[in-house]
Amino acid sequence: MLKQTAQSINLVVDCLSLVVASVVATKIPGAYRWHWMVLIGMGAGSMLVWTLGGRVLRHYDVWNGRGIAGDVTLTMLLLGAMVGAMAVLRTIVPPYARGSDLETFVVVAAPAILWLRLTTSWLRRREVSIEHVVVVGTGPLGRHTGLEIRDRKDHRHVFGYLRFADEPVHSRLPAEVLGTAIDLEDLLKKHVVNEVYLASNRDPHRAEMQAAIGVLERFGIPFALPAAGFRFGRARPQHEQAVADGYVHYLSVRNKPVQLAVKRAFDIFASSLALACLSPLLVAVAALIKLTSRGPVLFRQNRVGLHGRSFHMLKFRSMVQNAEELKAKLMAFNEQQGPVFKMARDPRITSVGRFIRKYSIDELPQLLNVLRGEMSIVGPRPPVPSEVEKYEAWQRRRLSVRPGLTCVWQVSGRNQISFEEWMYLDMQYIDHWSLAQDFQLILKTVPIVLTGRGAS
Amino acid sequence: METKAPDFKRVVLLVEDHPTQREAIRRLLLEKNFRVETANDYHGAIKVLASCVPHLICLDIALPRESGLELCEYVRGEDKLRTVPILVISDRSSPEDMANAEDAGANAFLKKPFTRDKLLKYIGVLLDGPYSSRPSVRRLRRDV
Question: Residue B141 falls within a domain, yes or no?
């Protein structure tokens, strides 16, 4: 799902750079000016060629298995096709296009797209082994599944195997056997797992597979089932793309790749814009914190992100330096039910801290987390690891989406609801997620933050 | 293929329904000094197997009538043929396809399209590699 999103973002970014390139090509001094109709026509035409070409050549497929050289070749090929189409357009509408300047366009667009393409694929490649896959089943199917994932050399990694109760362990498995299928729940609690392959198509394993599916759905972990389940030689699936690796993949969150891509693009755009606009405020607050109390400006707290992967959430430091140690002593005064700690007049908060917390300024550095892709603007608040340890299975599903700055709970009246209710609200958010709801939540958050209402 | 020149010609049974492909593989094997028996389906193969025990069976999964996997099972069910290594060739190579081939008794799985070198390498490993000496070969080698 995430890779699908990444590829959709790639497509959006490529199209944007095409637009920018065509605008630049017509605006640089000395270049011919394009008639605006030609600009729009060429823009639409080239975008169409690019998207269709990309689809035909599988430029934006999830499992394209291409390296950098392949990426470059394909990009150039697509660009060539596009310029060809534009040249044809130019001959068709000569009166408007007499002055249009394809050469400049190519000179500007080619490096721009190539550069973007290479940085995104470099970024993707840099995140080696970040997706952990667990294979349930140690028979031939399990082994071939693991080998296939290993040999595909995208950044998936077989974290380990679980075997079915009656199953012998195949020698030469590409990863260690960590237990039986019953241990799945424990495994998911302890480790970051991005997808689980249920690698069996045999009757005796049906009950165990069904139980595993139950666990996976409760945890909100994506899983994959063998696409065929039977043996055949000649027949092929009608929609081969859907079962490209021989598995049908299931998600427990709704799959909206385009909306997710828009959300991520919005996150990047909005967080960088906000960081730029708020930079005077951020600098002032940082200076104030530095001047009024000892210790660093930013507070890096370990939080649990998407699929349980932990990251450092950034905050302006609003407490005294040894706050975490004092927390243990203050646990008796906890006012929030469940595994969260909240207290109205927390003695650890500094005077500047009280102000920046009232207006949620202390949370602003998380815009950097958003920019880095660890968080989103809207999403369930990232929990601390000790909270997650106390989660019940269904509550862990909160971790199946990217955590955010604000969510339903934050706009619903903040601290005045119980932990259980809070979890329900987050779960509702996850199950009924849509872009429209996200924007509503952002709009609702703004007045609450500005008035400092309900914050502690 | 790095093999010691055998003093007798080894027999390969080639089961492939596509005439051009069958002929291409046959020529290649003849060139490498094998004796090649060919069949174009399950029944043809069984007829050949009735009169000779080949050193290797090389078969396509997608055959016109019964599939290649059924031929695998037949071979594994016959006492005199049980230890003959089987190389399965198929254009579908999902983990499930490979697992099914392994379950049916194949020893190696080669995905179409393949190169000459790859085919010879697979055959070499099956004939001279660690699997040839074992009395009962039930393990599929994918990464030869």
Answer: no
